[in-house]
Amino acid sequence: MNFRTIVDIAPSEFHIGPSEELLFVGSCFADSIGQRFRIEGFPAAVNPYGTMYNPASILHTLQRWLAPSDSQCCDALSRKTPNTVFLTLGTNHVYRLKETGEIVDNCQKRPACLFQEERLSVDECADYLRQAASLLRQLDPEMHIVLTVSPIRYRKYGYHESQLSKATLLLTAEKVTDVISYFPAYEIVMDELRDYRFYAQDMLHPSQQAVDYIWERLVDTFFSPEAKTYLDEWRPLRQALQHRPFNPEADDYRLFMEQTKERLAAFKKKYPRFTLPDI
After folding, report:
1. Rounded to whole angstroms, how far apart are CA atoms 276 and 279?
2. Distance CA 22, CA 48 (A)
């Protein structure tokens, strides 16, 4: 007997290669998946100007990231042209500064009375995403763009309003599939992992186990055979580098580390774009 439903994901029309350049912009979920790519040695830029939750703020990040005069980006990797960009929508709620009428990306802890909260419509969300896709394709017409909806729940809106917001984002995703690919991270958590044991202690964010499972589905969907081989080769190296010995001065451990460094050098030679993560 089968006690759960599996989300069917159509084969991707493109593949992510070994240690290729990527950019992640969006909600906390973009942070989680982007950091996983970094752990696996991919040169990935993750939210170079901070976490962004709505389509307008995602567009603002890309406009700023593409501005040649902007020298405030703290992430050096973000200056490289990515092969693939992941955009993760968290909400359709935005905050507009009353004084100027502009949508702000961060209220910077200023008084709430200075802002007006609004909900973007499906058409407005789609328009921001189409602008974002257009900007990226000006940089590289062949760039791959993947859209996801974050499975993180927004308690501050109330759970009914949170679901309405997600519904707007899902309808938006459907509206832009002609220019942006879609990966069903939200559906995987809601339909496959529909149990609170797959949530963190706050009962709002996916647990690490859930993120790991989504990562596996993402690898199955987007990674080329060469990239999957790359992961298989990197995994024992990463485990060796993460090893913490009882006695770091022992001869056996020194020999182990020398051999690991030799293997790492050979791995870097085979995959020149590999970026050694902080371990």
Report:
1. 8
2. 12
Instruction: Please state the separation of Cα 91 from the chain's center in Å.
Output: 15
How many CB atoms lie under 10 A from the CB of residue 201? 7
* pLDDT tens figures, 176-194: 999 999 999 999 999 999 8
Sheet with 181-182, edge to edge strand ranges = 44-46, 22-26, 84-89, 144-149, 181-182
Burial class (CB in 10 A: 0-12, 13-18, 19+), 14: middle
> What type of residue sits at position 91?
T
- State which H helix or E strand residue 144 sits in: strand 144-149
Strands of the 103-104 sheet, one edge to the other = 103-104, 93-97, 115-119
Q: What would the pLDDT profile of 130-155 be if each residue is shown by its tens digit?
A: 999 999 999 999 999 999 999 998 88
pLDDT of residue 117: 94
Alpha carbon 190 to chain centroid distance?
18
Q: Which residue has the tokens 């290669």?
A: 17
Residue 90 to residue 253: CA distance in whole angstroms: 46
Question: Quick one: which H or E segment has residue 160?
Answer: helix 159-175
The amino acid sitting at 146 is: V
Q: How far apart are CA 88 and CA 94, in angstroms?
A: 15
What is the b/e burial string over 189-198, where b = at least 16 CB atoms within 10 angstroms of the residue's CB? beebbeeeeb
Tokens 């990674």 — which residue? 223
Backbone phi, then psi, for 42, in 5-degree steps?
A: -85, 135
Strands 93-97 and 115-119: antiparallel
